[in-house]
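hey can u run this one w/ 2'-deoxy-thymidine-beta-L-rhamnose bound, need the structure tokens asap thx
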Amino acid sequence: MSNKVMLQLIWLKKSKMVRWDIFCHVVDNYGDVGVCWRLACQLATEFGMTVRLLVDDLGSLQRIYPEIDSNLTVQHIRNIQILHWAKPFPDLVPADVVIEAFGCELPANYVTAMAAAPSQAADSADTKERAECMWINLEYLSAESWVEGCHRLASPHPRLPLTKYFFFPGFAAATGGVIREAGLFTQRDSLQSDPKKLWYELGIPVPASDETIVSLFCYDHAPVGHLLEAWVTSTSPVRCLLPEGVASRQAATWAGKSHLIAGDSVQRGNLVLQVIPFMSQENYDRLLWGCDCNFVRGEDSFMRAQWAARPVIWQIYLQQEDAHLPKLEAFLNLYCQGLVQEAAKALRALHQGWNNNEQLDWDNFWRYHKALQQHAIAWAEQLAQAPDLASNLVNFCRNR
Ligand code: TRH
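ok here u go:
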């Protein structure tokens, strides 16, 4: 723990900002809980916070962290108390900092208790030091410029003496930053410099040295068939590592099979398609480190692929009224800065095709792989210069 973090921690302990509740409603898939889980782990491990994670769908959490028992109401893992957020919601004493992830709407009785929290402490000796409960709505990650104007905005409760603050993760300095654990790059670099070890730890046979290794994680509207065909006719061999899930079902249709399961592989032309198990979040991170290029989606895998410092193709989560399109454009505008023009054009074209269900020119994209690789490293380095999301949250609470 650095001196700076240690000082923050002492301050937070004095100000009683040590108990954190993170509420997570799983809208769908794994990204909501994936982000909350990473944040909970970091707050507990790096900042010594007492963290409760309240999740309404433990099955989703269990999928990315298999040690979770999805039948338990309360469990303790990695110094985090995990509670099943069920209805009716029990009367809990609120934490000092309450994270409402992605506008998930806190239980009414909990909000009432938050408003009462300072006066509840009226009898205790530390009343004067006790701060109002910090209520933070953690928003989705976006590269759009409006985020900077909305980050940290306060929204007073219409009836209760409470204020909710909007906290926007983002790529610009005036946003909340992105999740990045201490030591992430060291771990990544160590495994990237020893690929045999990496594949061994993942239980995946070491790919041939002339193969371009690609991981594929996407939604069901992605043109998986087009992509696989592009690899079949690619000018160089491609090994696609495909975690079981949506894409493996689409790949099965493409391969003319009823299903594909972990362990199956299909060889056609220059493509070897290898289905691998859906892995723990930790191992999935490593998979991204091991691949030459990663197809990712949503928010969390998208971010982790950037930290992998390898070329990335993002399938953005569909939103109503095409609200996702400016979000994709904003990211590409930012990401392409400093990337040679031809490579940027090819990167944009592949994103366009992948997100709009069109034909894909893989060869034209991959001919710039060296430039894309160098740029991916530079991008990750540059992003890591800014403070990470957890540090920003802790600082924000300290400064209030
Ligand atoms: O799963 P996602 O689509 O999640 C989300 C949610 O749908 C959410 O509602 C939406 O708003 C958001 O996307 C934008 O994609 P994401 O964010 O990439 O999360 C996937 C998680 O699954 C991530 O934490 C990595 C993890 N994962 C594994 O742990 N093992 C695996 O094998 C794979 C493929 C992924």
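Residues 17-180+387-399 form one domain. anyway lmk if its weird
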